[in-house]
Amino acid sequence: MKLTAKQIAEMLDGIIEGNEMVEVDSVSKIEEGKPGCLSFLANLQYEKFLYQTHSSIVLINKDFVPSQPVQSTLIKVNDAYKAFATLLDICQKESEYHPSGIEYPSYINSDTTLGKDIYIGAFSYISKKVVIKNNAKIYPNVFIGENVQIGENTVIHSGVRIYKDCIIGNNCIIHSNSVIGADGFGFAASDHSNKKVPQIGNVVIEDFVEIGSNTCIDRATMGSTIIRKWVKLDNLIQIGHNVEIGEGTVIAAQSGVSGSTKIGKYCMIGGQVGIAGHLKIADEVKIAAQSGIGSNIKTKGEILQGSPAFNIKDYQKSYVHFKHLPQNIDKLELLIKSMNQEKEQA
After folding, report:
1. Is residue 154 within 8 Å of residue 169, measured between CB atoms?
2. pLDDT tens-digit map of 55-65
């Protein structure tokens, strides 16, 4: 798909500096730019590449002033990174395949309610009392259990399993092989028999949520496991029963949230973070990768690291001492030896 600088500027409400008729048909990193490519500069650590790149067009922030001459045509926007993402979204929608209709073989129960312009791929199984709303896309090999609701414009990719009674909102994306609504990890261990506690709740996923591949979200023991709107979950994440994840929170891969924990709005949780059960995490909290959370986080916007996690600045100061611990122990042993020798000589 070829676009001129003028067309791109109109899409992004940008200001052109350079040749407005120059064309691009691909995108690239700014350090790898070639003629015909569009790149962006958002992180000033990469500024040097702006003066070296061969990209035909570069998106930059309006408040950025180059310190050297630039060969590329520049398009100034409010936020170069967001503008680049917007442009990619436009191009993807123009070029992507939009399947429709019902492919066979697939099974659709007669008690299912189907909206307009939906797609159901081959070998999918749609149970009774399912509601699939307008323009939803169900790709091949998907299982949808009884009484599930799928919202408008939602995309369910191949291999997803959605258990009974779960509710998926509008404009969601669930990637391949994720499982929504499997039983929570509930067992009564008082007599060492690990008797299973029935899990009779469901999962509720609100609008504009995206869930990565191989992520599992357990149904509630009672009530609902809730994923609020705009949440983004990476691949390979485990969400336990009765967890609630607040609006706009993002969680990176291989993290796990234990049962009944409530995570606030707009939190950012790094990869391989473990969060214990029955905790409350305040809004806008940031947790560094590989951290362990074992207690409530009450302060809005706090940044934590470590296992058990604590304030990131304190952690980094502590780590400076920790990584020098072997050398400091050697020094301490020498000091003790010297003191003992002085005592013997006295």
Report:
1. yes
2. 999 999 999 99
